[in-house]
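Quick illustration, no need to memorize.
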Amino acid sequence: MATRTANESLSPGEAPAIRTDGLTRTFGSFTAVDRLDLEIPTGIVYGLLGPNGAGKSTALRMMTTLLAPTRGRAMVLGHDVVRERHAVRGLIGVTGQYASVDETLTGSENLRLFGRLLGLGRRRARERADELLAAFSLTDAGGKRVSGYSGGMRRRLDLAVSLISRPPLIFLDEPTTGLDPRTREQMWDVIRSLVEGGSTILLTTQYLEEADRLAHRVSIIDAGRLIAEGTPDELKDRVGSSSLVLTPATPEDQGATAAIIERVTGHAPATVDQGTHLQAPLSEASVATEVLVALRDAGLSPRTVSVDRPSMDSVFMALTGQPTKHDDAASPDAARFLVLPSRRLSGAVMTVPTTATAPTSTSLSPGVWRFSEARLVPDTMTMAWRSLITMVRNPGEFYDILIQPVMFTVLFGELFGGAIAGDVKAYLPTIVPGLIIMNALTTSQSVGVDLREDMDKGVFDRFRTMPMSRIAPVLGPMVSDVLRYLICTSLTVLTGYILGYRPANGWSGTIGAIALAAGCAWAIAWIFLFLGTVFSSAQAVTSFTVIVLFPLTFLSNAMVPTSTLPGWLKAFVHHNPVSHIVDGDRYLLDGTAGSAGDVRAAIIGSLLILAVMAPLTVVRYQRRNA
């Protein structure tokens, strides 16, 4: 596809890359985007500019399916962003204001993860990861965790992820924020090469020079409304044929100088170049003489003065009445687009040989559930792979799975064994089944905490803009959690065996007890997963564990027989469901305590929890992240 010129119009019957009609988004009584009408042709860089809180990020979130419009309509490459959002997600790449990658994974693992979620096979995903790492000068860093990357390296990796499927339309939300000048120039070269390859770019930027040099056409929005649209040259012509650039003699003179410039020219000057210069459009170059005479009469002779063609800074100031700002923090949903500080990076010139192609996913039928079916299993397994890597590399997860079972078994066995039973070995048939259940249940809260933390990260926004199964981010961690419970319960049994515990029912009873504990914990984990979609923070999920789960596990018969407890506590422990699960495990291991009824009660209870909480969790997550 050839790059379109700035003034070239759409051919008859040709669909624009993006078209919005009356696109509106409100948050309560606040209107972030107000009846936005855009028509963006294919094959160009289109700049979207606006002052702080103008609604740029909100508009982008609607166009990329992350946020539903309150009113109006948006079409992306002929597909409605609400009714056909899956088709839209198969055609776009999105790079937000901060890097939406997984910091626990390496650069190569991130690219392979997203490649697999985009439908590439294992081999092709690995090959594409290597191609992109080389293209963005990240080959040497590909095997390192992203948490150790500089800000610029994360930005390059983030853009590389957006290019895995060679999308025909790419959204870049302030892609060069925080980069040093050399790396910014390199990123500009990448953007130009993408357009030459047939892609369309929608660019928001805090650097007006960037829009001036890259964008074929520019829209300026203010207070959620479109106030100007055209090529950079057309917008400059709207504010005058020339521009006055003036440097006050001292910083203290800037306020008075700006007031005189505004009085003479009728335009408040923009502050440019880190506040050292004042710039204002001129209707005629001769007006500059009037400004200089007024400044001389006021005793404010400038240090330097020049008359040039208007810049985009002048355009921005004239049309919005505000100097350029660097974020959308005033917008209610701006927390998703906070700018992270970046550090300098170095690297060779980046070249991205790519031709935009439309993924096959666009042929799928639209709909929330129908499109999920085809990708459900592979995407769930890919997300399970991600969770397993996170589990291995997270020190907290390592403690819960490997250290806690061993430490609890040794500590409670030795400490309570002598104090309660008078003999450690005699106490092990009581404590080991109890600790199997305790370790499994206390570990089950991790999946809810992890989901809540993930949902607060930019990486989940990227998942939501991809043509992947909508519920794979929920099911994947639950699949990997099975291994978590099997490991921690097995370690409890193994530690008990080392201390001298020998289950009377042998290995068959041991396997049954481990399976019962893992199954119960897996069912209860759905409660925490649901809480992860309801609570606003991971700390709230953890607090629920402390308030509810810990008392249930410790105020049970896990550590001591119910018969030894005082009467007021005995009734509670007897009706505590955790006690019945523990007795079920004791029955399977030794057959001397509990009964088959306890095993059946544990299984039935787990199935009931699963039948209720799994659908609730999926529906809740689906509604929040559709």
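Confidence is low (pLDDT under 50) at residues 325-351, 358-372.
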